[in-house]
Amino acid sequence: MVLTLDELNDNDEVFQVEGLTFVAKKGLMEKISPVKIDYKVNFFEKGFVIAFGSGMLPPDNDGPKCALSGENK
User: What superkingdom does the record give (predicted)?
Assistant: First the structure.
């Protein structure tokens, strides 16, 4: 799973979380919820980390976090 810039289309749902807008294909969030998006910066790498279901990020992970649920807001 990756984050990317894309055009909104008829098969998408829009989610607003903490002031950010996310778009996912209809029905996807129900299949993979819960979802957590984190931005990771360390000596070797930086970038977004996406975890869902049983692969959720541990609570001690530092940095900004954004959690999505299957509820459309």
Answer: Bacteria
